[in-house]
């Protein structure tokens, strides 16, 4: 996944932003959009193999519970895989029951962290680079879009966390040569939780976001050091 400051190619097209406005703005990056929220997450210490085995155990246990209601037994092959996964985890001193009991709690904690914005950014004049995912047009010009940190976000890859998406309404519609144009937005950042429906080729999806910027100025992204990064 490529962030704006590692852009390998930029589509050239005219954009606009007042130079004085840009100079006054604080330049931020996507990592600076994430709020600090500490909690005990025992799953981060597991290897990918351990997580896969834990997932297998959880899935088969769920099927076993469901079988009590439906009368449809779990296949012997799946039961065998579950037993093998349980043995591997126990041999590695992994607390299977303890971890599975905390799944819902940890999921909610992770969701809370992903939704949290940085309060000190609320109302501040900032500049942020990213990629355009258009929402609304004025003729052929974009007037509303989502700014996302990497190419393909929400369409070709799962959406970023809500605190890694900015809902942008521009000061003046601008022309773009296609989805995922690389730009820098400048304006007053708002902490504003929203859900927007995004229309995709194979249906629609609800996208959650924690930030918004209205009357935003937009300019073509330039790599650090000046000029376009080739």
From TrEMBL:
It comes from the Bacteria. Pfam families: DUF3299. This is DUF3299 domain-containing protein. It comes from Rubritalea tangerina.
